[in-house]
UniProtKB/TrEMBL annotation:
It comes from the Bacteria. The keyword Transport does not apply. Belongs to the peptidase M50B family. Keywords: Membrane, Transmembrane, Transmembrane helix. GO terms for biological process: proteolysis. This is Peptidase M50 domain-containing protein. It comes from Ruminiclostridium herbifermentans. It is found in: Membrane. Its main location: membrane. Residues 176-337 form the Peptidase M50 domain. It is a multi-pass membrane protein. Pfam families: Peptidase_M50.
């Protein structure tokens, strides 16, 4: 611990911060999102942490905070108060405590490698304030709805559709660039709506995700907006996919006889597919963040996994009733686990079907990519389970609050 050795130390919180209630719905356990505006670091805190945060005004010693905490909540937990203060220090939220900025860098993920593009966020800001803000009104919204519905109807109206892709390399390359069209507009829509609600885009660029290059936009600053705006920013991506797919469907309908119409068809199909995939709440895509805001449970996936693999057995042994939030986490965590197992099972079956008829001459790119994709996904749950088992004996500091 950094600060527990000197109880006479007077710590002062930084001035450059933002804080707001995470969930606007009424419930007992209110959570707040605290932002270090200098480093764009976010921290979720509960009512106890919020009280401690307000005590860090530079006039109270750590010992005073312990006493005030006891007076306010009639609870004694020296380790809890000190742990929270240390967490504030580690996030760079304490003014008179030196922090290492390297700690603020996001942890590298196995299947994600990001390459930020300099000044691209400024480009999005210029696009919004110079042009895009003119389209944020009801008239253009109705036009977008009309185009979306018309394009979808035309897509189903066309009976004789070409194959999405054939075995030619040029067709695969064209398909890839056709996929990039909805991806670009998808990410652009997230960025523009983020600026529309007076938040900013931290960074944007190219990311290698699942061994495939894709575009990404970091809109984490939208966490400081209210729940309604967060949901809209999450939903606008899939809705933009819907609109892009419909525009491409209309173009495909009118230029059906042209050889280049295949590009419009590919872009339409991939846009509609992206819309469906992104609305899937069981993966950490746009639909997941919408569900998280609707339920009012921050870090829903991680907390659901922790509840299922770490907390549920002790609660059952003690006969402790689940809260409504815990029931939600149990249902979501179970569905998410079943979905991942089903997804992996389907992938394994496809590969087994290939390898049953295995011939070294048939070893194509699809088999290699599937193996590269499958191995890390299998490895990550094993690594996660090992970490949970290793830390099982550690008592969560937030459970150490005892009534006197």
């Amino acid at each position: 611990m950094y600060v527990s050795k000197d109880l006479s130390l007077k710590l002062k919180r930084i001035d450059n911060f933002e804080i707001r209630i995470f969930d606007n719905k009424k419930k007992e356990n209110v959570e707040y999102i605290l932002k270090n505006s200098k480093y764009d670091i976010y921290m979720v805190i509960n009512e106890y942490d919020y009280f401690i945060w307000n005590c860090l005004d530079g006039t109270m010693t750590i010992q005073d905070i312990h006493y005030t905490f006891y007076e306010r909540f009639n609870r004694v937990s020296v380790s809890y108060v000190e742990n929270i203060i240390n967490n504030f220090c580690e996030k760079g939220l304490i003014e008179n405590y030196e922090c290492d900025p390297k700690k603020f860098l996001p942890k590298k993920k196995v299947l994600e490698i990001r390459f930020p593009i300099k000044h691209i966020a400024n480009f999005f800001e210029i696009v919004y304030y110079k042009v895009a803000h003119l389209f944020f009104n009801k008239i253009w919204m109705l036009i977008a709805i009309l185009i979306s519905v018309t394009g979808l109807l035309l897509y189903f109206y066309i009976k004789d559709k070409p194959p999405l892709v054939d075995k030619k390399l040029t067709s695969i390359v064209i398909l890839y660039f056709a996929v990039m069209i909805p991806v670009f507009f998808h990410e652009l829509s997230h960025a523009l709506f983020c600026y529309h609600y007076n938040r900013k885009v931290k960074e944007a660029g190219i990311m290698i995700y699942m061994f495939m290059p894709v575009l990404y936009v970091n809109t984490s600053d939208i966490w400081m907006a209210d729940r309604k705006h967060r949901i809209i920013v999450s939903l606008v991506g899939p809705l933009c996919d819907f609109l892009t797919g419909s525009v491409c469907s209309i173009l495909f309908f009118f230029f059906y006889a042209q050889s280049y119409s295949i590009v419009f068809y590919q872009a339409a199909v991939t846009s509609y597919m992206r819309m469906v995939f992104n609305l899937n709440p069981l993966m950490k895509w746009d639909g997941y963040y919408c569900l998280m805001d609707l339920m009012g449970i921050y870090n829903l996936k991680e907390r659901s996994s922790k509840f299922i693999f770490h907390d549920i057995v002790p609660k059952l042994k003690r006969g402790i009733k689940f809260t409504r939030e815990e029931y939600y986490m149990l249902i979501y965590g179970t569905l998410s686990l079943v979905y991942v197992m089903y997804f992996l099972g389907q992938l394994i079956i496809l590969d087994l079907q290939f390898f049953i008829k295995f011939d070294i001459s048939h070893l194509n790119q699809r088999a290699i990519l599937n193996l590269l994709f499958l191995l890390p996904i299998i490895f990550m749950p094993i690594k996660r389970m090992a970490k949970i088992i290793r830390n099982r004996s550690n008592v969560d500091s937030k459970l150490n609050i005892k009534k006197t």
